[in-house]
Amino acid sequence: MHRAGAVLIFTVLLSWSALGQAASSGRKKHKFPEVVAQVSLAGQTNPIPTTTIFTPNTDGLFRISVYWANTVPASTDFTWSLDLGWTDDAGNEAAQSFMILSAESGAPMSYSINTGNGSSLTFRANAGAPVTFSVKANSTPSSTTYELFFVVEQLI
């Protein structure tokens, strides 16, 4: 009698385990981080108006990694600034002047508020609301050229 009960319990547990595996095998498993957007802009000589990088399909935590460099120095001193924008549960968010690029005359150079000519930012964005960027000049650009590269990853 005890043996029959033990076999019955074992069979039930094995069935539940098999059902759980079958149910989970049909789900798409994400491997994070996952690259969701990339931008490569070389030879830029003008400001860039607010532009959508991507629109998240799900709420999530994201990281943007940026490399920005001045490739042709300016004939006069001025700077470019990179702005980022997104929407989270608190509403519209912005990282204004997230990076500043010096276009000073002389050797090509770049400067970031955070870490040299590359930087990253982690943010939470809501599904359906675009993540954006723009490049602004503090005065009229004077024959300078920059390159801007970034990748956006979804972390969770």
Can you walk through the features of this model?
It is a single chain. The chain is elongated. Helix content is 15%, strand content 50%. About 12% of the residues have low confidence. The chain is an alpha+beta fold. The chain has one domain: Jelly Rolls, CATH 2.60.120. The protein has a four-stranded antiparallel β-sheet, with no helix packed on it. The chain starts with a helix and ends with a strand.
Helix fraction, binned, reads: 10-25%
Q: Characterize the largest beta sheet: strand count, sense, and whether it forms a barrel.
A: 4 strands, antiparallel
What is the count of distinct domains?
1
Strand order of the largest sheet: 1-8-3-6
Which spans have pLDDT < 50 for at least 5 consecutive residues?
6-24
| Portion in strands | over 45%
Looking at CATH, which topology would you report? Jelly Rolls
* CATH C-level category: Mainly Beta
Instruction: Let me know the average pLDDT.
Output: 79
- Gross morphology is elongated
**What is the second-level CATH architecture?**
Sandwich
Report the end-to-end length measured between terminal Cα atoms.
51 Å
Query: How many helices does DSSP assign?
Result: 1
The topology string of helices and strands comes to: HEEEEEEEE
Count of extended strands: 8
| Rg of Cα set | 25 Å
**Secondary-structure class:** alpha+beta
